[in-house]
Amino acid sequence: MADTHHSAAELVALARAAAQRAHAPYSGFSVGCAIEAEDGSIATGSNMENACYRLGTCAEIAALTSAQQAFGLDKVRRIAVAGGHIGADGALAGTQTVTPCGGCRQAIAEAADLSGVDIEIIAASGDGGTLSQTTIAALLPASFGADNLADAERR
Fold it and tell me: What is the pTM of this model?
């Protein structure tokens, strides 16, 4: 596959499009995530709520699951997240940037551990007008990972 990479704006647009396919009838807050692999391949996901609230799935987890199937977590290099409400025109709206929740940060850190790369995180507002770029190490500086299991007794 060709070594193509997407701009931050392109990744945000893919995350925003994924958010439009979210199932968020309870919160009214749709989140989309686009993950770019080292070769430029893309996997996306959106949040999926459930009437039993705790059974909902975050967009990042949905996208990471898709990425694992498409190209493997060890190939993840960049993640864009956008969230907000679906406006009257059907477009994702909202002005606040959305970052991954704590659980999603831990899952992204797992992918970073597998790849040995500090994964870039692009956090965008629903309308796509505001974004910030950081890394998973900056968002979760003391993550728990495979190295923390060195003292585990394996049976």
Answer: 0.93
